[in-house]
Amino acid sequence: MPFAQIYMLEGRTEQQKRAVIEKVTAALQEALNAPKESIRVWIHDMPKENWGIAGVSAKDLGR
């Protein structure tokens, strides 16, 4: 069972997350010849204050 974990900053819409799930599933299905029903995608919606870039939180960077 292929399992993809995706980490991204909070703020994406539900529609954008659905698109990510759909496209990642399709890519894994094509690349691995895996049945669609066996593929799992988990999106980690990270708070901006929990994501650091060059020693500064993404929130403080205005991302």
Can you walk through the features of this model?
With 63 residues, the protein is α+β, with helices and mostly antiparallel strands. It has a single domain, classed as Macrophage Migration Inhibitory Factor (2-Layer Sandwich). The chain is 30% helix and 29% strand. The protein contains one helix and four strands; from the N terminus they run E-H-E-E-E. It has one helix spanning 14-32, and strands spanning 3-9, 40-46, 52-53, 56-57. A two-stranded parallel ribbon has the order 1-2. The longest helix has 19 residues, at 14-32.
Strand order of the largest sheet: 1-2
> Helix-strand pattern, N to C?
EHEEE
Number of domains: 1
Query: Which architecture would the CATH scheme give at its second level?
Result: 2-Layer Sandwich
> So what's the overall shape?
elongated
In short:
The chain is an alpha+beta fold. The protein has a single domain, classed as Macrophage Migration Inhibitory Factor.
